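Problem 3 from the worked examples.
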Amino acid sequence: MTAGSSRGWSRRTTAYAVTPVLVLVAVVAVAWLTTPRTSGLEGEWETAAVPGEVLGGRALVGSGSPVAVDLVTGTRITLGSVTGGAPAIGAGRLLVLGDGRLDGAGLDGRSRWTWQGPPAHALTLVAAGPSVTVVQACGGTPGGCRLIGVDGNGRESWQTPQPTATGTSAPVVGADGNLPTVGVLPTPDGTLVLVDPASSRIVLRPASRASVGADGRLTLRSEASGGCALTTLETLDRTSTSTTSEPCASAPPPPGPERVTAARSRVWWWPFGDGRPTLEVRGRHTGRVVSREPLAVLRHDDAGLTVREGDVVRRYGWVEGG
C-alpha cells in the first residue's frame, strides 16, 4: 500500500467512526430541543406535601392533624397539641374552632394563640381581617347572639350584640373554609348586614347574594337594569363594581388573573405513552408547567403558581414577559 492510499484509507476510517457519533449527537440535540418543558415560570421554593386539602386557596392543611403549608411562602406550621375542631383560613391565619375555644396561628409561623369563648355558647367563625378575627357566639340567657372580635394575641378586641334583624342566622363563609375579609349576616328579607372586623362597624346593604372568593374577597350580586351588578369588597371601604348582561343567577364570578387547564404534552418522535402531565396558564400571564409526576393546581395568583408535583409542593413565579 502506498503512502497516498494509506492516508485515504485513514480518512475514510475516521469518517466512518465519526459519522455515527455525529448522528447520535444530532438525535440527542433534537430530542432535547423538542422535549416539552416548563416555560414562562421559574421555581421559587419546594417542600414536602402533607395529605390533606386546600383551604381558602391559601394553605394545604393536613387531614386529622393541625399541620399546614402556606401556598405563598412555603412556610410549614403546626398547632401542636390542638386536635379535632374545624379548620379555616382567614387573612393569613390558620384557625381551628373547637369546643368552646378558638386556636389561631399565623401562616408565617410568627404567632400562636388560643381564645376561650363564653361558657354555654355555640361558636361560629364569621370573618377575618388583618388583625382581628370575628366570632359569632350564640346562647346564654336570654338567648341570642353576639359578635366578638379576637385580636392577634387571642384577646377580646370588641363585642357587640348581633343585630336583631338577622336573628341567629349563620354568617356567609366560603365552602372551602375561606373566611371573608368582611363579615356577612343575612336577614330574612335578603338584606345583608356587613361587619368590619377591625372596628365592629356595621353597614346594611340592599338585598344581595353573597359569596367568598380568593383570599377572602367578598362578592355581592344584585339585580341591575338589564343584568347583574357584582360588587367585590376587600374591606368595607375598598370596593369595586362591575356589571354583566346576564341575570345574577347565571352570571359568572369576577374573572381571576389567570386560567389554568390540565393537558398532556407529547413529542412527535416518541409515539408511545400518553405524554407528560402539563398545566397550561393563560390570561394576564402565560406559561406552562411540565413534569414526570402527577400535577395539581393548589393556588394561582398574580405573583405565581403553586402546584403539587407527586409528593412535593412547588411554587413558581412568573418570569418577565411571561
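Problem 4, a separate protein:
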Amino acid sequence: MILDKYVVSLLEQYWNISGVLCLKRIESSVNISILVETINAKYLLKGLAINKAEVYRLLLLWKCLLEHNIPVISPIMSFRAHPYVWHEDHYWILRRYVSGAVFTMNSPTEIIEAAENLTNIHNITVDGIDFCYNSIHDPYHWLYDMEKEIYFMKTEHADISGIEILIKKVKKICNDIRLDDYLQLPTCIVHGDYHGKNLIYSNSKMKAILDLETIGVSARILDIVEAVFFLGRYGYGEYLFNSKQIIDFLRAYCSNISITDKEIELAIKILKLRLIPRADYLRRMKEKSKSAAENQVLWAVNMMKCIDQKFEPLFISSLE
C-alpha cells in the first residue's frame, strides 16, 4: 500500500477533503497517526486497530467528555454522518489539528490545571458502562489471566533481553493484588494515557487533551498515579521527580476527590503493571522493528527500578 495515495483517497472519499499538501506519519506505538495539511486546514487522522464494540464504547465516552465541557476535540463526521470510517482493517477517525505547546514541566499553573481537568473527567457519571478496558496497558489484562499473558511473553518474546525480569515482576505483583481487589476500587472514566505530550496549552491555559484511544471505565487510581508519575518530573526524557510538582498535583486533585486508603495501598503495584508491556503490545512493536520492542522492554525494566528507588517514596510521602 502506498500510504500517501491511500490516505488522500480516504480523505476525499469519506470526508470530501481535497487539496492535500503534505502527509506526515507521527510516531505512535500501535495505532496509525497521520498529520494532514491541506490548503485550508490541518487535521489528524487516526487508524485504530480495535473491534467494533471497542470503537462504539470509545466514541460514547468521547461524547461524554464533550458534553461535560472537557477540552477534547470532536471527531469530524464522514459523509455518512458517522464519526468513524471502517477501511482496510482499521477504524479511521479524523479531527482537526490543535496547535499549541505541550505541558511545561515545572509550571505551577499548568500542573494544577492538569489535576483539575483530570478531576473533572473522573467526576463524570456515565450510564450503561460498568467497566471498559480499552487501553492495551490497563492492569486488568494482567490480573484477568496472568498465566496466559506470561505464556505469550515467553513463547513470543523470549529472544528479548529483560523479558524474564519483567515476568518475575508481574508474578510478584499479581501475588500481592488480585483481580477482585482491582475491580473493587473506585471506578470512573479514565483517560488511560494522561501524560504531558497529550496535554496542549496556550498561554498556560489547557487547550486540548489528546489521544483518547485509551479512554475507558476503569480504576480511578490508574489515571492518578500514572499522571503523577509522568507529570511530576523535572523534564521530558528524564526520571528525576519534583516533589513540589507532585504535591501541587495531588492537592489540586484531592480538593475535589478523596483518594481512599485502598487506592493508596495498591497505587504503586497498579503503576508497575501499567508500565510493563504485554505480549500483544510487544508483538505490534515488533511489526515496526525488533529493536523497538527491545527498547520498550529495556525502558520498562529501568522504570521498575525508578519506581522503587525514586518515585514511590515521594508519592507516598506526598499523600501523608
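Solution to problem 4. Residues 3-96 form a domain with the Phosphorylase Kinase; domain 1 fold (CATH 3.30.200.20). Residues 290-318 form the longest helix (29 residues).
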